[in-house]
């Protein structure tokens, strides 16, 4: 619709002319607008989704390939992480953007499984489009997919999930190895998996009631395989309760783990500073000590963390001082120096032996710090200081002004630690803080040949840390290597035969779509995908249909991509968090079932 305003009441002929002009303009706009509906739009959406999935499909699995991405200015990014690959692409198609957002969501919620969720979602879209071509209404397809998802999640929780109230390090290390097997550090999984497990365990904290409710909501129930794992790991029976009541649950905040990258040496010389913190900064002056330690009476080293300038005080903008005697100018300069000295003195009197600031420190302030034997570092990263404040039990100070207009420094803002030492790493120096007195904190110092390798190591280690965190918080795991997808495919095929409505065909297509994961794993490993998947389905069908307890462990059978055979992946240590598998299915099913 359009509205035409007149300055004065128009005549009837003028009104008619104006309406005619408006109708002509609207006709021109409508003729220039192209609207696509029906099958053409569906085909375009599916084609765009498949194009995105094909980009990351070859990077799936322990023998997946890395991608080299080059942007407009020539910067190179080498990665195997699905979320990173998709985030770096300039995707404009709205359906393809949904898959990019899907991978981003999986990375935020779980931290791993981003490639799998994109591949499953695109396969569901493709099969849904084929069903529409065969005359199945989209509403029926949406309903069938949701029924299949509900049945699949229920089966995972009841049959596939292995519950353990106290997970041993072996299972955590196996999960970390599975996560990083396809990354650049896949050859050194023994070293880095232990590094990841130790780092996550070092930041253990008591979980609140809200945290525990969140763990339960994420699907940590069920567990048909608890007895089997209890025998192999000598663990407590599933459920997480004792005779006296509910056990204390814990949380593991990854924000407390600081990952620092330093050029030089090999990746195997990366190390974990347990209970410590490393910050990429150095002493502001050579006259400062290289290390400070706690005193003989056990007083910890106090650290002041500032987000303000430590420079000579200057008059504010627009302030004018009129003097009649030139000697007063010297008094003004002296007073400016005294104000700076008083600030430094208040920080020192509060007990600080290490001063870190995000801003600058001039020579005058450094002179006072050198005389007091204090380590001072400038231009520190603000996020690093926030982490350090949490680790040492201090606070970042942004101003020394109090409510009365005076300047004071509260000693409670100081963090505490056992010692601070300047250590030479690669071409520069870093400050190592040992024995932090606040909440749990750890630092992983990664070493590598170049920036590309360090960045990819950082991403791979982040995924492994997320996997270990999820397993510790939910105490659940499922076998990997295509075992869960093959078991679900067989189960959903049987479940579809119990459905008497049109959704039966949709559920069968959903079951076949899940096989895209083992098929892709086998293809990337240069194995015969058709034969391996057929053998895998046969074994799972035998395990699900047999009442013999000898066949009980068949539901844990998955692919061995090195030997090109099938094996018990739970016994082989190829495991992943149950929440990762459940979230992947839910997110992947959400894409084709959105009503657009």
From TrEMBL:
Top-level taxon of origin: Eukaryota
Protein location: Cytoplasm
This protein's UniProt keywords: ATP-binding, Chaperone, Cytoplasm, Nucleotide-binding
Ranges annotated as spanning the membrane: none
Cellular component terms (Gene Ontology): cytoplasm
Gene3D superfamilies: GroEL (3.50.7.10), GroEL-like equatorial domain (1.10.560.10), TCP-1-like chaperonin intermediate domain (3.30.260.10)
GO molecular function list: ATP binding
First-listed, main subcellular location of the protein, grouped into a coarse class: cytoplasm
Keyword Ribonucleoprotein: no
Family: Belongs to the TCP-1 chaperonin family.
Protein known as: T-complex protein 1 subunit alpha
Source species: Cyclostephanos tholiformis
């Amino acid at each position: 619709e359009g509205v035409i305003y007149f300055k004065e009441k128009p005549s009837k002929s003028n009104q008619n002319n104006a309406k005619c002009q408006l109708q002509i303009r609207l006709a021109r706009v409508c003729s220039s607008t192209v609207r696509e509906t029906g099958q053409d739009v569906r085909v375009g959406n599916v084609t765009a989704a498949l194009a995105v999935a094909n980009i990351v499909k070859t990077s799936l699995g322990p023998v997946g390939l890395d991608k080299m991405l080059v942007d407009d200015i020539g910067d190179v990014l080498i990665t195997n992480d699905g979320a990173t690959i998709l985030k770096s692409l300039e995707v404009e198609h709205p359906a393809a953007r949904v898959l990019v957002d899907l991978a981003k969501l999986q990375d935020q919620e779980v931290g791993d499984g981003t490639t799998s969720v994109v591949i499953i979602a695109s396969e569901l879209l493709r099969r849904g489009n084929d069903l529409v071509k065969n005359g199945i209404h989209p509403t029926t397809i949406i309903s069938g997919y949701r029924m299949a998802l509900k049945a699949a999640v229920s089966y995972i929780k009841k049959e596939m999930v292995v519950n353990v109230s106290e997970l041993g390090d072996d299972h955590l290390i196996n999960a970390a190895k599975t996560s990083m097997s396809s990354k650049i550090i896949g050859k050194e999984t023994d070293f880095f998996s232990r590094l990841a497990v130790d780092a996550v365990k070092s930041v253990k904290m008591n979980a609140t009631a809200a945290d525990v409710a969140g763990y339960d909501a994420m699907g940590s129930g069920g567990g048909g395989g608890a007895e089997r794992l209890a025998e192999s790991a000598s663990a407590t029976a599933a459920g997480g309760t004792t005779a006296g009541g509910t056990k204390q649950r814990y949380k593991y905040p990854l924000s407390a783990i600081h990952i620092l990258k330093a050029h030089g040496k090999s990746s195997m010389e990366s190390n974990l500073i347990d209970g410590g913190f490393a910050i990429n900064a150095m002493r502001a002056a050579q006259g400062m000590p290289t290390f400070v330690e706690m005193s003989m009476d056990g007083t910890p080293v106090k650290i002041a963390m500032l987000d303000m300038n430590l420079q000579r005080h200057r008059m504010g903008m627009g302030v004018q001082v009129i003097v009649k005697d030139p000697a007063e100018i010297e008094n003004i300069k002296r007073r400016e120096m005294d104000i700076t000295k008083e600030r430094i003195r208040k920080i020192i009197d509060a007990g600080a032996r290490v001063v870190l600031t995000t801003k600058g420190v001039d020579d005058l302030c450094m002179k006072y710090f050198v005389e007091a034997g204090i380590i001072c570092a400038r231009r520190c990263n603000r996020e690093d200081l926030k982490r350090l404040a949490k680790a040492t039990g201090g606070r970042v100070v942004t101003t020394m002004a109090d409510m009365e207009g005076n300047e004071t420094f509260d000693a409670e803002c100081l963090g505490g630690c056992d010692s601070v030492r300047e250590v030479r790493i690669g071409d520069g120096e870093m400050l190592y803080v040992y024995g932090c007195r606040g909440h749990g904190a750890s630092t992983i110092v990664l070493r590598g040949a170049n920036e590309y390798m360090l960045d990819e190591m950082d991403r791979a280690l982040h995924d492994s840390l997320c996997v270990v965190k999820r397993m510790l918080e939910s105490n659940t795991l499922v076998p990997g290597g295509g075992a869960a997808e093959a078991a679900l495919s067989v189960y959903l095929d049987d479940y579809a035969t119990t459905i008497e409505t049109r959704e039966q065909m949709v559920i069968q297509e959903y079951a076949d779509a899940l096989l895209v994961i083992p098929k892709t794993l086998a293809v990337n490993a240069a194995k015969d995908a058709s034969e391996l998947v057929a053998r895998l389905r046969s074994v799972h069908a035998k395990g699900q249909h047999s009442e013999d307890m000898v066949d009980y462990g068949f539901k844990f059978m998955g692919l061995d991509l090195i030997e090109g055979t099938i094996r018990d992946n739970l016994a082989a240590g190829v495991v992943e968090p149950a929440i990762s598998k459940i979230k992947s299915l839910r997110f992947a099913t959400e894409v084709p079932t959105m009503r657009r």
